Amino acid sequence: MANELASSLVESFSSLTSLKYGKELIVFIISMLPILELRGGLIASALLGLDGLSSFIICFLGNIIPIPFILWLITPIFDWLKKTRLFRGLVGKLENKAMSKKEQIEKLQYIGLMLFIGIPLPGTGAWTGCLIAALLDMNKKKAMLYAILGVVMAGIIMMILSYGILDNIIH
């Protein structure tokens, strides 16, 4: 799924490739998006032919930018949106979806948060992990540190998968 989404977004943003740092901008934007995040950014950077190290840095930066906003602002925004008829149902669904995965974080606390974000599986990542951390009212500074460590972990795993580093090590 991430491959198809990343590929579609690369295609959608293809007009940006004519800019000096257009490919990097595409990767940065994809890395900031929920669902795709760093994982999708690294897939996109491999598709665009960017080198691994600069791609890792671009994707890392793109993926960590939303973290403090989610940790500090999502619950007040959700509380406000729940007061409106239009968004009450949507916010409830988002909270329920996130909280359905809380056991994975609640059990191990901050290490659980890092592992939830760091192991690239469908439905995990910084957006969901930080949403759960905020809804569980975890210490925001500590959650931010462990979320960033999780993004680094996910980045290393995805670099191995996206750029075939494992294949280079084996052969």
Number of domains: 2
Helix and strand string, N-terminal first?
Answer: HHHHHHHHHHH
DSSP summary, beta strand count:
0
- Number of DSSP helical runs: 11
Cα separation of the termini: 29 Å
The coarse overall form would be globular
| Mean pLDDT across residues | 90
- Using the CA coordinates, give the radius of gyration: 17 Å
Strand residue percentage: under 5%
Please identify the structural class as seen in this structure.
Answer: mainly alpha
User: Sheet with the most strands?
Assistant: none
Low-confidence stretches: none
Helix percent reads over 70%
Give the structure's gist in a few sentences.
This protein is mostly helical and 171 residues long.
Description of the structure:
This protein folds into two domains: 2-64 and 157-170, no CATH class; 66-151, no CATH class. Helices cover 77% and strands 0% of the residues. It contains eleven helices and no strands. It has helices at residues 2-12, 22-32, 37-47, 52-64, 66-81, 85-99, 102-106, 109-118, 126-135, 140-162, 165-170. The longest helix has 23 residues, at 140-162. It starts with a helix and ends with a helix.
